[in-house]
Design a protein that fits this description.
The complex is a heterodimer. Chain A is α+β, with helices and mostly antiparallel strands. Chain A has a single domain, classed as Glutaredoxin (3-Layer(aba) Sandwich), CATH 3.40.30.10. Chain A has 3 helices and 4 strands. A 4-stranded mixed β-sheet of chain A has the order 2-1-3-4. In chain A, strand 3 and strand 4 form a beta hairpin. The longest helix of chain A is centred in the first third of the chain and has 16 residues. The mean pLDDT of chain A is 92. Chain B is α/β, with parallel strands linked by helices. Chain B folds into 2 domains: 42 residues; 98 residues, K homology (KH) domain (GMP Synthetase, Chain A, domain 3). In chain B, 29% of the residues lie in helices and 38% in strands. Chain B has 3 helices and 7 strands; from the N terminus they run βββαββααββ. The mean pLDDT of chain B is 96. The chains are: A alpha+beta, B alpha/beta. The interface between A and B is medium-sized, with 16 and 23 residues.
């Protein structure tokens, strides 16, 4: 799983990155967390306000620091979407 | 293209039928005993509750793999609660799953997260009209 934290490196960006890191640890996941500071890249994901959170190339949140519980839900959804069985 | 799942039902006479599942199994079925069916045979009501129970189970196994839950055992009793209306029509008003889960070296919060994902991604649970509630009993063993 690849997780990107989009932002200029401000307090909110760092807080988001910390929350993401903690959620990944809590959920026992293997993930690569990348900070993206290039505004050109932010636009590519349709991000209008920082910080932004991208999980597996999908923008899941922008313009705010989400609660840890929200981050865990997005991570779980992303994990389930990876090689998801067709039914069950 | 969307997946299609099939079954074939054939009347055997009286209140008994035979069903061939799309995936191979075949068995007889009847109505519940309190609706003039026979004891010891599959009923549509059982099949409905079983469909929810088995589907959530399969998705829980999947979510345990995805969320690194070290599952030791899983057993789930399911209850389908029926409501009868004044005009004698009926519906399931809710299905309650009571899984007994034992894990090793896994935080309980992660097990609950896996259950949430299982509930959310279960095709059958997502398709039924009534609420599907999960009331787990989780035992977390030390690593």
């Amino acid at each position: 799983m690849v997780i990107k934290v989009l932002g200029p490196g401000c307090y909110s960006c760092d807080l988001l990155a910390d929350r993401v890191r903690q959620a990944v640890i809590n959920m026992g996941m293997e993930a690569t967390i990348v900070k993206v500071r290039d505004p050109g890249e932010w636009l590519r994901y349709g991000l209008l306000f920082t910080p932004g959170l991208v999980i597996n190339e999908k923008l899941v949140c922008g313009g705010r620091v989400p609660a840890p519980e929200e981050i865990s839900t997005w991570l779980a959804d992303a994990a389930m979407a990876e090689q998801r069985p067709p039914a069950g | 293209m969307a997946a299609v799942y099939t079954t074939l039902v054939r009347w055997l006479g009286g209140r008994r039928g035979h069903i061939r599942m799309g995936n191979g199994p075949e068995l007889d079925f009847t109505a519940p005993p309190d609706a003039h069916g026979e004891e010891g045979t599959l009923t549509p009501e059982d099949a409905f509750v079983a469909a929810v129970n088995t589907c959530v189970h399969m998705m829980f196994i999947w979510s345990c793999e995805r969320l690194k839950v070290n599952l030791v055992s899983y057993e789930c009793e399911a209850f389908g609660y029926k409501r009868v209306f004044l005009d004698q029509t009926e519906e399931f008003e809710r299905v309650v799953l009571r899984p007994r889960i034992v894990v090793r070296g896994t935080p309980e919060a992660r097990v609950r997260r896996a259950l949430e994902s299982a509930r959310k991604y279960s095709l059958v649970a997502a398709s039924v009209r009534c609420p599907v509630e999960i009331e787990p009993e989780i035992t977390a063993l030390e690593e």
